[in-house]
Amino acid sequence: MTTPAKNTICLWYDRDAEDAARFYAATFPNSSVGAVLRAPGDFPSGKKGDVLTVEFTVMGIPCLGINGGPAFKHSEAFSFQVATADQAETDRYWNAIVGNGGQESECGWCKDKWGLSWQITPLALTEAIADSDPAAAKRAFDAMMTMRKIDIATIVAARRGRDAGGLTSFHPTSVPLARAFVGRTLRSTAGPRRPRVSTSRSSPTRASSWRGFPKLLSRKRRTAPKFS
C-alpha cells in the first residue's frame, strides 16, 4: 500500500470520477490513475460495488475523486491553471477539454464536461501582463480581455505596441504628434503660403499697408530700366 500524500485535492463528482480521472491521465503529462475504491455496501447515491473514490494525479498533483451524487457542483472558485510553452501546447489542451464535451469561457478559461474549470495559460501571457512597463502590460491585458483561447501572437504583438500583422498600434497619446506630422506634410505640399491680410479694425496699420501695395508695384514697373 502506497503512503498517501500529505495534502490531496479532493474533487466531488456525481458518478463519473473514474471517467474524469482517465481523461485527465490521457490528456496531460505526468498524470495517472491510481487506486479505485468500490463501495463495500449501499450508500445514498449508489449501491454496493459502485466506484466510490478514485486516486489520480494531474501533472504531478495528487487528487482524489469522489462519486458523491448531484448534491454539489464544481464552480470557477476552484480551477487548475496549466502553463503552456507555445501555441501548439495551448491549442492541444484547450481543444482536448472543449472538444470532449467541455465549454469555452473567457480569458483562457474553459470547463471540462464534468464542470471543472481549467486555465490554459501561455507563459507569454504571464510574462506580458507582468511587464515592468505599465503601458506594455496594459496593452497585453486589454488584448487578453477580448479572448477566449489565448492567442500568443496577438498578446506578444500587443505587448510590443503592434498588431498581429506587425503594424504599430495607434494610441490616443500619439494624436498630438500625428496632427503635427499631418499638418507639416500638408503645408510642405501646398506650395508657398500667401500673406495673410488682416481686415480687423483693430489693426488699421497692417491693412492700410496692403492697400497701397498694388500702387507700389505699378510704380516699380514704370521706373524699371529698359534693356535694348
| Fourth CATH level, the homologous superfamily of the domain at 79-160 | 2,3-Dihydroxybiphenyl 1,2-Dioxygenase, domain 1
CATH architectural grouping of the domain at 79-160: Roll
H-E string: EHEEEEHEEEHHHHHH
Give the class from helix and strand content and strand pairing. alpha/beta
% residues in beta strands = 15-25%
The parts where pLDDT drops under 50 for at least 5 residues are 170-189, 202-210
Outline: elongated
- Order of strands, main sheet, comes to 1-4-3-2
Helical residue percent band: 25-40%
**What's the total count of β strands?**
8
CATH topology of the domain at 79-160: 2,3-Dihydroxybiphenyl 1,2-Dioxygenase, domain 1
Task: Please describe the biggest sheet, giving its number of strands, its sense, and whether it closes into a barrel.
Answer: 4 strands, mixed
In angstroms, what separates the terminal alpha carbons? 124 Å
The level 1 CATH classification of the domain at 79-160 is Alpha Beta
**What is the average per-residue confidence, as pLDDT, rounded to a whole number?**
82
Count of runs of 4 or more consecutive helical residues: 8
Tell me the Rg in angstroms: 36 Å
Keywords: Methyltransferase, Transferase, Ubiquinone
Region (Disordered): 186-228
Biased composition (Basic residues): 217-228
Protein name: 3-demethylubiquinone-9 3-methyltransferase
What does this molecule look like?
It is a single chain. The protein has 228 residues and is α/β, with parallel strands linked by helices. Among the domains are: 9-67, 2,3-Dihydroxybiphenyl 1,2-Dioxygenase, domain 1; 79-160, 2,3-Dihydroxybiphenyl 1,2-Dioxygenase, domain 1 (Roll). Helices cover 37% and strands 19% of the residues. The chain contains eight helices and eight strands. The strands form two sheets. It has a four-stranded mixed beta sheet. Residues 217-228 have a biased composition (Basic residues). One of its GO terms (molecular function) is methyltransferase activity. Residues 197-211 have a biased composition (Low complexity). This is 3-demethylubiquinone-9 3-methyltransferase.
